C-alpha cells in the first residue's frame, strides 16, 4: 500500500553481506565485549534492535511497460545493533546516503528488498495484522520537517490524540483529554495550545507537538529523523535539551538520524556513519569521534566546525561528487573520493571488521588497533570520561544512569 | 468570509445567488400567478408586453412570465443541488481512494473516468436523456452521470499530492488505518479546490439542464424550466421578445453569479494567496 509504485527486488541479495555486532558492546557487560559478531550466533544478551543485511532497492522504470531498467541501491546491506533501552544510536551521513530510507524500511513504511530486523526478538519484517499494529505502537517517528508533518487543518489536541485514538480504545472522553494535556505539558507546552492550529505555532512548538505525538503511546524506540534540521539554532538547542530530558525521564531509546555531527556526538552513545547506502564505521561515541578510523569519517569530522580550538585539526577536504546510487562504484564505494585508495579498493568491497572491541570499520587501509584491551572492557562509560569537552561529561553521566535502567 | 466579500464582483455574485435562492424558496409567496407555473393557462391575456400586472409580460398561452421564471429558479437550483450533491458524493470518495491507494485501484478507476470524460458532458447527457424518457428526473440523472468523473479526477489529483505530505506519512507511521487517513487527513486538505470547482460548476450544471430542455431532452411542458421557456418562446421572439429574454436573462444571471462566487472562493481559499 505504501510502496504502490515500487516493487520488491527480491533475489538481489548478494552473498557475503556483512553481518556483525556493534553498538551493543558499550552497553553490555565486559565479558561480551570480545564475543565477536553478535548476529552470527545466538546473542547472549537480548539485543534491543538488531538490523541485519537490510537492503532497499528502488526500481527505475522506463518505457510504456514500466520495466525496471535499473535499481537505485538506496540502502545496500546495512547491519547494526542498538544494545539496550535508554541509549541513543546516532546515524550520520550526508544527504541522499540512504539514512531516511533505512528508517522508513525499519518502520515498515517501505517494503524491504532484503534483510532482517529484530526488535526485542520480534522479526519486524514478518509482522502482519495485529503484530504490525503493535509494532506501530512500539516504534515511533519524529519526522524531519515540523512544518509538513502536522496536518494544517487539525488542532493540536487532535494531532496529539491521533495515536491514542488509533491504538488506545480504552482512552476516550475525559481520560483522553487528560492524557493529551499531560503529554503537552511533558513537552513544554500547555493545554492552552490544545485548540491552536499548527500555523499558529512556531517551528519549535510544532516540533514539540510532533514529539508529544510520538511519545503518546510510550514507544520502545523513537526514531528521530533530523528532528532539528528545520529549526533555528537557538530553538534546536531547546528541542535537543527537551529530547535529552525526556530520554532520562522515561528511559527512551533513540535512533537519531542526522547530518549534523556535533549534534550526533552530543546525543549518541553509539555512532554509525553511512555512505552511499552502506555503513562505513560503527562504534561507541568515545571511540569514533576522537579517533575516526575510516577516511570518510575523518573527512566528515574534520569538515564539521568545532568551537573548541584544541580539537581543530587539519581539514581533510574530499574531492569529487558522491557517485550515483544507481551505479555504485565497484569495490569500496568510497574509493572514488578516498585520498588513500589503492588498487584493492577498486576491486574488493571491504566488509566491516572489528578494529577494536565495539569499533567496526569497513576499509582495507585500516589495520586493527590493539583490540580487546582494558579500555574496551571498561565499557562506554569509561571511554566517555576520556573524551574532551564539556557536553561529553554530562553525556557520560546520562549513560551511566541508563546502564542502571 | 470577509475576504470573500471584499472583492466587489464576488460580493455581487454572492448577492445574486442569495437573491435567487431566496426567490426560489419564496416563489409561491412572491409569484403573482403561482397557478401559471403549474399548468393553468389564460389564453385571453396571451402575449401581453411587460406591464404593472405582468412585469415580464405573458407568453403564448397567457401565462405570467415572471411567475414562471420565479418557479424556474426553484427547478434550476434544485437540479443543481441534486446533481452537485450526487456528483460529489460519488466522485470525491472514488477520487480520494484512487489517489491515496494508487496502484491497480487507481489505474482501473482512472481508465473508467477517462472513458467518461472522452465525451463532452453535454453530448453525453443528451445521449443518456435520449435513450431514457426525456423528463426532468432523467435529465438530472444524465447530468450527474456526465459530471461525477470530473470530481473523481480533481479529488484524485489532490489526494496524490496530499499523500506525499509529512502528516500523511506521520499518520502511516502511527498505524492509522487507511480509511481514517483518507477522511481526516486527505479529504480535509483536498477540499478547497473541490469547493471552488463545485461553485464554478453549479452555473454550468444550470446551463446544461437548460440546454437539454431547450433541445426537448429535459423538462417537458408545462414545467416552468428556463431552457424550455426559451425554446417555446423562440417562435415569437421577433414580435414578442419578453417571452424569450426574461428566462434567458435568468439563465445568464445565474451562471454569471455562480462563476463570480467560484472565482472569489478560489481567491479566498488559495493557500498561496492567503499566506503572505
Could you give a quick summary of the protein structure above?
The complex is a heterodimer of chains A (405) and B (276). Chain A is of the alpha/beta class and 405 residues long. Chain A has helices at 99-106, 129-138, 156-167, 173-186, 203-215, 233-250, 261-267, 285-288, 295-303, 343-347, 374-377, 380-386, 390-404, and strands at residues 49-62, 67-82, 88-92, 114-119, 122-123, 139-142, 221-225, 253-258, 270-275, 278-284, 353-356, 359-361.
Unreliable spans of chain B are: none
Give the averaged pLDDT of chain B, no decimals. 91
Largest interface: A-B, 30 and 22 residues
Strand content of chain B: under 5%
Largest sheet of chain B: none
Quantity of strands of chain A, as a count: 12
Largest sheet of chain A: 8 strands, mixed
User: Number of helical segments of chain B?
Assistant: 12
Which fold name fills CATH's third level, the topology of the domain at 25-120 and 220-404 in chain A? Rossmann fold
Instruction: Tell me which CATH architecture of the domain at 25-120 and 220-404 in chain A applies here.
Output: 3-Layer(aba) Sandwich
- The ordered H/E elements of chain B are HHHHHHHHHHHH
The radius of gyration computed from the alpha-carbon positions of chain B, rounded to a whole number of angstroms, is 22 Å
The best one-word shape of chain B is: elongated
| Count of extended strands of chain B | 0
Tell me the structural class of chain B: mainly alpha
Distance between the termini of chain B: 18 Å
- Compute the number of structural domains of chain B: 1
Distance separating the two termini of chain A = 38 Å
Amino acid at each position: 500500500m505504501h510502496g504502490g509504485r515500487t516493487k520488491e527486488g527480491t533475489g538481489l541479495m548478494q552473498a557475503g553481506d556483512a553481518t556483525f555486532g556493534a553498538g551493543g558492546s558499550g552497553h553490555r557487560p565486559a565479558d561480551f565485549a570480545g564475543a565477536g559478531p553478535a548476529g552470527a550466533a545466538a546473542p547472549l544478551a537480548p539485543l534491543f534492535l538488531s538490523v541485519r543485511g537490510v537492503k532497499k532497492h528502488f526500481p527505475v522504470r522506463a518505457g510504456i511497460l514500466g520495466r525496471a531498467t535499473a535499481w537505485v541501491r538506496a540502502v545496500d546491506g546495512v547491519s547494526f545493533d542498538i544494545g539496550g533501552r535508554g541509549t541513543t544510536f546516532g546515524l550520520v551521513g550526508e544527504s541522499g546516503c540512504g539514512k531516511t530510507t533505512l528508517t522508513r524500511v525499519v518502520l515498515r513504511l517501505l517494503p524491504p528488498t532484503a534483510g532482517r530486523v529484530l526488535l526485542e526478538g520480534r522479526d519486524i519484517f514478518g509482522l502482519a495484522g495485529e503484530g504490525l499494529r503493535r509494532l506501530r505502537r512500539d516504534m515511533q517517528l519524529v519526522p524531519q520537517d515540523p512544518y509538513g508533518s502536522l496536518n494544517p487543518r487539525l488542532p493540536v489536541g487532535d494531532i496529539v490524540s491521533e495515536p491514542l485514538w488509533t491504538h488506545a480504545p480504552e482512552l476516550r472522553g475525559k481520560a483522553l483529554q487528560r492524557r493529551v494535556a499531560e503529554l503537552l505539558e511533558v513537552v513544554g507546552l500547555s493545554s492552552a495550545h490544545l485548540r491552536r492550529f499548527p500555523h499558529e505555532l512556531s517551528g519549535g512548538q510544532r516540533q514539540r507537538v510532533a514529539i508529544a505525538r510520538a511519545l503518546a503511546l510510550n514507544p520502545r524506540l523513537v526514531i528521530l529523523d533530523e528532528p532539528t534540521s528545520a529549526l533555528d539554532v537557538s530553538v534546536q538547542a531547546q528541542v535537543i535539551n527537551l529530547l535529552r530530558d525526556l530520554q532520562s525521564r522515561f528511559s527512551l531509546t533513540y535512533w537519531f538520524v542526522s547530518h549534523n555531527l556535533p549534534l550526533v556526538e552530543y546525543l549518541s552513545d553509539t555512532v554509525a556513519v553511512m555512505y552511499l547506502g552502506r555503513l562505513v564505521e560503527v562504534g561507541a561515541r568515545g571511540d569514533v569521534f576522537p579517533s575516526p578510523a575510516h577516511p570518510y569519517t575523518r573527512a566528515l569530522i574534520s569538515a564539521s566546525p568545532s568551537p573548541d580550538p584544541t580539537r581543530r585539526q587539519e581539514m581533510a577536504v574530499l574531492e569529487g561528487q558522491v557517485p550515483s546510487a544507481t551505479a555504485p562504484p565497484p569495490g569500496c564505494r568510497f574509493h572514488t573520493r578516498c585520498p588513500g585508495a589503492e588498487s584493492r579498493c577498486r576491486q574488493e568491497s571491504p566488509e566491516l571488521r572489528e578494529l577494536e572491541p565495539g569499533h567496526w570499520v569497513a576499509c582495507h587501509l585500516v589495520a586493527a588497533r590493539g583490540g580487546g584491551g582494558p579500555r574496551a572492557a571498561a565499557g562506554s562509560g569509561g571511554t566517555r570520561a576520556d573524551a574532551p569537552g564539556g557536553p561529553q561529561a554530562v553525556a557520560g553521566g546520562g549513560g551511566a544512569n541508563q546502564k542502571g535502567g | 468570509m470577509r475576504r470573500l466579500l471584499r472583492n466587489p464582483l464576488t460580493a455581487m455574485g454572492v448577492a445574486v445567488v442569495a437573491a435567487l435562492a431566496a426567490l426560489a424558496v419564496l416563489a409561491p409567496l412572491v409569484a403573482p400567478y403561482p397557478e401559471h407555473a403549474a399548468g393553468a393557462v389564460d389564453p385571453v391575456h396571451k402575449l401581453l408586453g411587460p406591464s404593472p400586472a405582468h412585469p415580464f409580460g405573458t407568453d403564448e398561452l397567457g401565462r405570467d412570465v415572471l411567475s414562471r421564471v420565479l418557479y424556474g429558479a426553484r427547478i434550476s437550483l434544485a437540479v443543481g443541488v441534486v446533481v452537485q450533491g450526487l456528483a460529489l458524493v460519488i466522485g470525491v470518495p472514488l477520487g480520494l481512494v484512487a489517489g491515496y491507494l494508487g496502484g491497480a485501484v487507481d489505474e482501473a478507476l482512472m481508465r473508467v473516468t477517462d472513458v467518461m470524460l472522452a465525451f463532452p458532458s453535454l453530448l453525453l447527457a443528451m445521449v443518456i436523456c435520449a435513450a431514457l424518457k426525456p423528463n426532468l428526473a432523467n435529465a438530472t440523472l444524465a447530468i450527474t452521470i456526465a459530471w461525477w468523473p470530473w470530481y473523481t479526477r480533481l479529488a484524485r489529483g489532490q489526494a496524490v499530492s496530499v499523500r506525499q505530505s509529512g502528516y500523511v506519512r506521520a499518520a502511516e507511521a502511527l498505524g492509522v488505518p487507511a480509511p481514517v487517513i483518507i477522511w481526516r487527513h486527505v479529504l480535509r486538505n483536498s477540499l478547497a479546490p473541490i469547493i471552488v470547482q463545485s461553485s464554478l460548476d453549479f452555473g454550468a450544471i444550470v446551463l446544461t439542464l437548460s440546454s437539454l430542455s431547450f433541445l426537448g431532452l429535459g423538462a417537458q411542458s408545462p414545467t416552468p424550466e428556463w431552457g424550455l421557456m426559451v425554446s417555446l418562446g423562440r417562435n415569437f421572439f421577433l414580435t414578442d421578445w419578453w417571452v424569450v429574454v426574461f428566462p434567458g436573462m435568468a439563465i445568464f444571471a445565474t451562471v454569471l453569479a455562480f462563476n463570480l462566487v467560484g472565482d472569489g472562493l478560489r481567491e479566498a481559499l488559495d493557500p498561496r494567496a492567503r499566506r503572505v
